[in-house]
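[Meeting: bench + compute handoff]

Bench side (C.D.) handed over the final construct sequence. Compute side (W.E.) agreed to return the predicted structure before the next meeting so the bench team could plan truncations. Sequence as handed over:
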Amino acid sequence: MGDYFVIMVSIAVLFLFIIIVAMLKRYKRCPSDQILVVYGKVGKGIETESRSAKCIHGGAAFIWPVIQSFQFLDLTPISIEINLRSALSKQNIRVDVPSRFTVGISTEANVMTNAAERLLGLSQEAISNLAKDIIFGQLRLVVATMDIEEINSNRDKFLAAVSSNVEAELKKIGLKLINVNVTDINDESGYIQALGKEAAAKAINDAKKSVAEKNRDGEVGQAEAHQAQRVQVAAADATAVEGENIAKITIANSDADRREKEAEAKRKAVAAEKVMEAKALEEAYAAEKQAEDARAMRDKATQTANVVVSAEIDKQKVEIDAEAIAEQTRRMAKGEADAIFLKMDAQARGIYEILSKQAEGFEHLVKAAGDNARDAVMLMIADKLPELVKTQVEAIKNIKIDKVTVWETGNGKDGKTSTANFMQGMLGSIPPLDDVFKSAGLELPDILKGSQKANHPVEDVKSETKS
């Protein structure tokens, strides 16, 4: 009984192991250069319709036995040579467009499904032939829509048109256009060759022109270089001469300084010798003076003992009296000076106060005249007018005329007698107020110009004289 149980367990374990191994073998991993296509019962897609296959790139999937199977699509690029000949262009000129296209199975979701449906099981050669037929047709279609100039000169536009048309058709069978390379374009009429010759001729002419311009620039540059060389050499020579002159000036200044210092040193030496000699003489004279002073002192002592003492006493008394008088004089002078200073200081302060008050009065007067200085001056003159008239009359008031003898003939001019003419002339010697005002730059008002007095000047003078 125990052996039977062991056998059953062993069989169950073995069966389970076989199942696990079989399951592991049905788990397929997809390499990076292939597409795993699972077909059979693969479920439904986004829509309700059933999918024909499930494409996996870069992953893994479990393949159910019996209901599912799998194959791989190779992603290796396929190079296809397309020798398109006698393709009719837009200008009805037949051209040859040899080119090479590189295609491969696409890894886009929808396009992979197209590849699984249309390319699964085909060889690389079969896929290449199928793609070649599609490329030939689309290439002829693109050539028919473009001019030869565009195809030849604007290769980017041509390749973009080819890529757009060809790729759209290749996606229908699950392929992707990787690269397009047009090797050369020729035509039967030689039109492209003529365009090439024209471009070559233009390039040659441009090159010749450029070479001529460069040669011209070279000649001009060489001439400018020679000119610059000459200018720089001349400048260098001038700088060298200037440097030599500066060096000579420096040497001359150095020699002058040296001679000046030598002369100064010699002068100091001679002066020192003279000073030493003078000091020697001074010391000798001092010694002699001391000897004479000693002898004088001895004589003085002798005279002092006899006569000088009394005279010295008198002299000192006179000096003391003189110093006392001088001190008294100095003190009196100082007192007078202080008094004068105080007097002048008081006068100055008084004048300052008077001028300050006058300035304040002038300021108020100008403000009263509406800030018009001329009107203010007229007000001041009007205020002083009586004094001016009085001063003008005072000029002849005190004239004392003891006796005036007039020989009157009665033949006066304009009805005036000689006495009237005499008095009128005396009054005319006084400056009129109008002239006084004009000399000060002012204008006397018309009412004060004395027009009535001008009509009877003699009577006014007589009345003033009587007064």
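W.E. noted at the follow-up: The two ends are 190 Å apart (CA to CA). C.D. will use this when planning the next construct.
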